[in-house]
Amino acid sequence: MKREDLPDLMAFQAVAEERSFTRAAARLGTSQSSLSLIVRRLEERLGVRLLTRTTRSLAPTEAGERLLAALTPAFGSIEEELEALGQYRERPAGSFRITATQHAIDTVLWPKLSPVLATYPDIRVELFSDLALVDIVAQRFDAGVRFGEQMDKDMVAVRIAPDARLVVVGAPSYFHDRTRPQTPRDLTQHDCINTRLPTYGGFYAWEFEKDGQELRVRVDGRLAFNDVGHVLRAALEGHGLAFLFEDMVDEHLAAGRLVSVLDDWTPPFAGYHLYYPSRRHVSPAFGIIIDALRQSGRGR
After folding, report:
1. Which residues are within 8 A (CB) of 206 and not within 5 positions of it... i.e. 6 or more apart?
2. Are 157 and 275 in contact (CB under 8 A)?
3. Is residue 50 within 8 Å of residue 60, measured between CB atoms?
4. Distance (Å, rounded) from C-alpha 34 to C-alpha 151?
5. Are 152 and 275 in contact (CB under 8 A)?
6. pTM for the whole thing?
7. Sheet holding 166-170, edge to edge
8. Exposed/middle/buried for 181, CB within 10 Å: 0-12, 13-18, 19+?
9. Residues whose CB is less than 8 angstroms from the CB of residue 58 and which lie 6 or more positions away in sequence, other chains included
10. pLDDT at position 10, please?
11. For the chain (length 300 residues), average pLDDT per consecutive 10?
């Protein structure tokens, strides 16, 4: 590889990861036509087709997948080393991309990182809201947030929140002419508000546990969302039962706007953890972010 190949390889990586010239151009701050020309020029120089293009889709060929698999860790290492040079500055600096659910951003990440940004003006953070369990290496995130039970073995995990709990709730008006469920199986007779998980392409199966017995219930109802804020709003308006984080509904339960059911089937579980690749270099700036987010203790 020659030095002049680097910009072309970076352009190909962006197109292959985004699977779109349009999105890759926006990511790199260039034009779609320029990217198309760069990739075509790279293919001609290498003598192989790297991308399969149709009117509706774009995907790497087998050769393209092999090249992408080699470029991703290589460019990742270069970025980490460039970021690590920040330790030689007088002030910690760096840009960090973190993927998490909107709930984690609202309740943990933003409250803890806002003071960091005020104290360290050279630290930049992008918080990306997504319900999907993304591959943070492939998607070029510096870190992600998941529950403790969802951690991959090759990741470093740092607890950033206390234990969490999901509860089944509904508005008092919903129960005016309905019997409250006594077991999770009774939910199949109720109008439940579903949440779609992009990672699996389907609706989230509500998970319960009692006395060592675990149950997963595929609920049904007239409403479904991919945002828990909308689920909460629908539940408050009496459109059905919702399965939501306890800290989202505490205020509404105390005020009587919602009531909870099946409380003995919803024990707490390991809360949010920040995770990142074990081989990642922890720069002073990234260390500041980790320390700000770190949760001491396990309880609420």
Report:
1. 166, 168, 184, 187, 192, 216, 217, 219, 243
2. yes
3. yes
4. 40
5. yes
6. 0.68
7. 242-245, 166-170, 259-261
8. buried
9. 15, 19, 20, 21, 51, 52
10. 86
11. 74 87 85 87 88 82 89 77 65 89 93 94 92 80 83 82 95 94 95 82 87 92 92 96 96 97 94 86 88 69
Listed as own residue / partner, the contacts of 133-137 with beta carbons closer than 8 Å and 24 or more positions apart are 133/199, 134/99, 134/199, 136/99, 136/275, 136/276, 136/277, 137/72, 137/73, 137/76, 137/277
Q: Please give the pLDDT value at position 202.
A: 79
Instruction: Report the half-sphere exposure of 28 (CA within 13 A, side-chain side).
Output: 26
Nearest residue to 39 (alpha-carbon basis) of 15, 65, 4, 75:
15
Q: Which residue is listed with tokens 């508000």? A: 193
Which parts of 85-182 fold into alpha helices (H)?
102-104, 110-119
Supply the angle between the helices 32-46 and 21-28 in degrees, to the nearest 10. Answer: 100
And the tokens for 195?
Answer: 């949440």
Strand, coil or helix: what is 137? coil
Comparing C-alpha atoms, which of 210, 192, 215 is closest to residue 264? 210
What are 155's strand-pairing partners?
277
Q: Give the count of beta carbons closer than 10 Å to the beta carbon of residue 201.
A: 8
- The stretches of the chain forming alpha helices (DSSP H) are 6-18, 21-28, 32-46, 62-84, 102-104, 110-119, 228-236, 246-255, 284-293
Q: Give me the pLDDT at residue 201, please.
A: 60
Nearest-angstrom CA–CA distance, 187 and 180: 9
Which residue is associated with the tokens 């999105």?
23
Residue 2, phi then psi, degrees to nearest 5:
-95, 160
Q: Are 166 and 243 in contact (CB under 8 A)?
A: yes
Instruction: Output the six-digit token pair for 254.
Output: 């105390």
Residues 6+ apart with CB under 8 A from 232: 242, 244, 248, 249, 252
Q: In the sheet that 194-197 helps form, which strands lie side by side, from edge to edge?
A: 202-203, 194-197, 224-225
